[in-house]
Specification:
Helix content: under 10%
Oligomer: single chain
Largest sheet: 11 strands, mixed
Number of strands: 31
Radius of gyration: 21 Å
Shape: globular
Number of helices: 5
């Protein structure tokens, strides 16, 4: 197995595809050492607070850096290379909960989406807020940065709007304004005349967004060339938008999407989606639904009209009762990692949706956000409502190291249970298609123990 990792590192440096590296056994040997369990104290209250989001830096050189955002508006940067994560930086861009974090591809800046209706662009080396984007009328639920164009940002809010930002545009006055607004992206019916009148009055006052929490957008991300995907909180629909079109906020009905994807089940009882994830080739979308399923949709231009409505397959076996449960795809697109409301994280093989998932057992409360390290495929991170962040690493041979089984606070276990059988039956009803081929408890609240980031970026 060590040779497989060595061969993978060489192949990555030579720009070979990592899909041929067999590291499935690493998933079964994932464990969390007690020194990799991080408890976070609130920067304001001083009491332990749960983390809302964890994200690894996408840059290969700084892939060991983990950003963890909490309910008090603080972002902590952790160095996960050592067995005991080191707190490098503590940033306080908001006074409200941070629901999502997005790294710029170079790893020098991050964007945060907060409940204070704003998005902050931070310099991780200095901790300063470079820009603050304000146009949402309610909590900002998600933020994403385009891979090949870091100046493009997409955000979604609880008020129901999807906003596109271009940081190259000159700010109007003292603030940036969105270059495109998908108004009420997941509104089921047209607005009434009274609602439109209030909306036009809001526009005259300089506000381009009307708040309607009944059609909130829980997730939005860039997907493919000039496309943005969004997921609704109530309508049970995933939409794909073409950014080459200018959307208007002056009409009472929601704008038509380029493509729409629905969930299975009773159409009269739609369930909302809690998160969206895209595979590395941006040919498929994975939508976590509150009906305890994660649906995979084929989004390529070659799919026919019959493929546009229904999911390709579904992954089940877990429980998802809240909009805080997130999912993520492994860097090679072969595995799906998700949190759950049943105190565990789950890992599925993408090519085997009906197979029982692998469970990461150890948390004592709902597992919310998850992250996969891009530079070390056998490392994942999870956070939970039990106020801790855990780093899971592959331990192939525990007897050959100084660590004993008592020192581990979590481990990967195969799924066993009757609940998964029902999920398998539902998943088998969906046609599965092959994917496109690949082209010690530590408290991080003491600022006196902070290390500097400059050595990591400028060494």
């Amino acid at each position: 197995i060590k040779m497989a990792v060595h061969d993978f590192c060489i192949a990555r440096q030579l720009c070979f595809s990592p899909c041929t590296v067999p590291y499935g056994r690493f998933m079964e040997s994932l464990k969390c050492h007690h020194e990799d369990q991080v408890f976070v104290d609130g920067a304001i209250s001083g009491y332990p607070v749960p983390a809302c989001c964890v994200k690894f830096c996408p840059d290969a050189l700084y892939g060991h850096l983990l950003a963890a955002a909490d309910e008090e508006g603080c972002v902590r940067l952790l160095d996960t290379r050592r067995q005991s994560p080191v707190l490098l930086k503590e940033l306080n861009p908001h006074n409200n909960a941070i629901f999502d974090v997005a790294w710029l591809p170079e790893g020098k800046q991050i964007a945060t989406a907060s409940g204070d209706t704003s998005i902050a662009i931070l310099d991780v080396t200095t901790g300063t807020v470079l820009n603050r984007l304000k146009a949402h009328r309610s909590s900002v639920k998600s933020v994403d940065i385009k891979r090949d164009d870091p100046s493009m940002i997409v955000s979604s809010g609880r008020e129901g709007n999807v906003l596109i930002w271009d940081m190259r545009c000159s700010p109007k006055g003292s603030a940036h304004r969105p270059v495109n607004c998908i108004f009420m992206a997941h509104l089921k019916t047209s607005l009434s005349k009274a609602a439109m009148k209030r909306h036009h009055q809001s526009i005259k006052k300089g506000n381009k967004c009307l708040a309607n929490t009944q059609c909130g957008v829980t997730a939005a991300l860039f997907h493919g060339n000039n496309k943005v995907a969004s997921a609704g909180a109530t309508d049970g629909i995933v939409k794909l938008w073409d950014l080459r079109r200018t959307y208007t906020f002056l009409k009472p009905q929601p704008p038509p999407a380029w493509k729409e994807f629905s969930q299975t089940g009773d159409p009269n009882r739609p369930y909302g989606f809690s998160s969206l994830a895209s595979n590395p080739y941006e040919s498929c979308l994975f939508a976590s639904c509150l009906d305890d399923c994660i649906y995979m949709y084929e989004t390529g231009d070659t799919c026919t009209s019959a493929d546009r409505k229904d999911p390709v397959c579904a992954f089940s076996g877990h429980h998802n009762n809240t909009f805080y449960v997130k999912s993520v795809i492994s860097p090679d697109g072969r595995y799906l990692l998700s949190g759950s409301s049943c105190h565990r994280a789950f890992i599925w093989e993408v090519d085997r949706p009906t197979a029982p998932p692998l469970m990461l057992v150890g948390h004592k409360s709902e597992v919310t956000a998850v992250a996969w390290c891009p530079s070390q495929l056998d490392k994942v991170s999870t956070c939970s409502d039990d106020n801790d962040i855990r780093i899971w690493k592959a331990v192939v041979s525990p007897t050959s190291t100084s660590s004993t089984s008592a020192e581990f606070v979590g481990s990967a276990l195969p799924y066993r249970g009757d609940e998964h059988l029902k999920g398998v039956q539902n998943a088998k009803q969906l046609s599965h298609k092959a994917l496109d081929p690949p082209p010690s408890k530590r408290h991080c609240g003491n600022a006196a123990n902070l290390a500097t980031l400059d050595a990591f970026f400028y060494c």
